From TrEMBL, chain A:
<dbReference type="Pfam" id="PF02239">
    <property type="entry name" value="Cytochrom_D1"/>
</dbReference>
<feature type="compositionally biased region" description="Basic and acidic residues">
    <location>
        <begin position="11"/>
        <end position="21"/>
    </location>
</feature>
<dbReference type="InterPro" id="IPR051200">
    <property type="entry name" value="Host-pathogen_enzymatic-act"/>
</dbReference>
<feature type="region of interest" description="Disordered">
    <location>
        <begin position="1"/>
        <end position="22"/>
    </location>
</feature>
<protein>
    <submittedName>
        <fullName>Protein NirF</fullName>
    </submittedName>
</protein>
<dbReference type="InterPro" id="IPR003143">
    <property type="entry name" value="Cyt_cd1_C_sf"/>
</dbReference>
<dbReference type="InterPro" id="IPR011048">
    <property type="entry name" value="Haem_d1_sf"/>
</dbReference>
TrEMBL record, chain B:
<feature type="signal peptide">
    <location>
        <begin position="1"/>
        <end position="17"/>
    </location>
</feature>
<dbReference type="GO" id="GO:0046872">
    <property type="term" value="F:metal ion binding"/>
</dbReference>
<dbReference type="InterPro" id="IPR009056">
    <property type="entry name" value="Cyt_c-like_dom"/>
</dbReference>
<keyword id="KW-0349">Heme</keyword>
<feature type="domain" description="Cytochrome c">
    <location>
        <begin position="19"/>
        <end position="97"/>
    </location>
</feature>
<keyword id="KW-0408">Iron</keyword>
<dbReference type="GO" id="GO:0020037">
    <property type="term" value="F:heme binding"/>
</dbReference>
<dbReference type="GO" id="GO:0009055">
    <property type="term" value="F:electron transfer activity"/>
</dbReference>
<keyword id="KW-0479">Metal-binding</keyword>
Amino acid sequence: MIPAPLSSGTTKDRARSDFHLSRNTPAGGLRARMFALTLAGLALFAPPLPAGAQATGDLGLVVERASGSLLVVDQSERASIGRITGLGDLSHASLVYSPDEQFAYVFGRDGGLTKVDILAQTVVNRVMQAGNSIGGAISDDGRFVAVSNYEPGGVRVFDADTLAMVADIPTGSKTVGLVDIPGTKFVFSLWDSGETWIADLSGETPQITRVKGMGANPYDALVTGDGRTYIAGLFGEDHLSALDLWQDPPEPQSILPGYAEGREGLPVYKMPHLEGWALAGQDFVLPAMGQHEVLWVDARTLKETGRTPTHGQPVFAISRPDGRHVWVNFAHPLNDTIQVIDSVSKEVIHQFAPGPGVLHMEFTPRGHEVWLSVRDAGKVIIYDTETFEQLGEIATESPSGIFFTARAHRMGL
Amino acid sequence: MNRLATILALAAAPALADPDPEALRRLVRQDCGSCHGMTLKGGLGPDIRPAALASYQRDDLTTVILDGIPGTPMPPWRPLLSEGDAAWIADYLLRGDPE
């Protein structure tokens, strides 16, 4: 048995006392520490720890798409600590967290909305809300969970406690790029009609603001971390469109106009994702569509500041939380590779192949590690983001999205 | 050389490059699935289960797969798949997967 530090028994102390051990080895087992805690508890004749004494701040969920389950992971242990099953079709599923980081709301492609308790590791509630959903968001106050749908289209809003539907917003279109912004509002875009709608849920009935003229076929969108700038990627145009949400009413502004002009559009075997925008100092970075490059834009002026040629069609271009590096993964058939781009020089500084089917990347909240899901290897692999050294791996079935609970406190994820 | 081509080449090594059912089934579920849903019942792209494709002949379907549908996100697969592979996929889609 691994000797456990006999600390005073609060979670914070436990975490700190492990720190010096844990850089390259999985820290001494959780069970050992629980045992130590129990001993400490007995010694003091204190009442037993409440059942939920595990803190959630360094936990996360990994979507296991084929088996319809979620792996519960412990970030500082670099280990899985359980599995939640019975969630239906989870291909491309995403999820958001309740403000207290105890519950996750999982948006499945089969239209299922599932609420899970990550402490109890159980499904709490599940509704089939539509035929075919694409993503979701949780309101700033944690009261509402919104889901956008391909079929029948539109957005549905649910009470976060009960999952009872509180608003149905039909749009007559496949609905994409759903994000939360301050003021208990959601913003989303309409693939078929090229509009962006802002739904205000702070009052009795939802108030909708429709912004027309975003451009043909928005396929995804992001909002900046301050909730101010909404950017929609367009399949049917050679530019993206931005909205300044502090404007009333916001007017679409074309950004990166003609970025692919005069160049042959390359086949896109997987649509890029615009969530997880990257801000590096002044700039943010966006995956191009049909070109093997990422595009840099000044966050204030929305003018292009550079382009970086990449290995393939970028899918995610995600900045390390400090913004210094951007990690990029790629569409089929080049989805075994990762490139890391320096955001000052805008040059690729590291390239490697973690394995077949790198679908998703998630940084620890301060960015010292990145976790990659490598679908066809059946693994989550953990890397040091400074040295690029592999720190650990976790066996999992056909993993896709990785979501750490720290997302609970960030807008637009 | 792309990965799928590598897999196919390895799997088919001594004989002619016959379609590799295992690799192609996986491709359909995972990579067509990224737009059509892993169960093929639709996503950004439409339902491509047998009932939805009833009006297609095998050859037309093969052509759609190889050339894509210009002006839509349906990409041409010719750069990655042989005609034999595409025909195998067309059959597979029309027949449906027993699983």
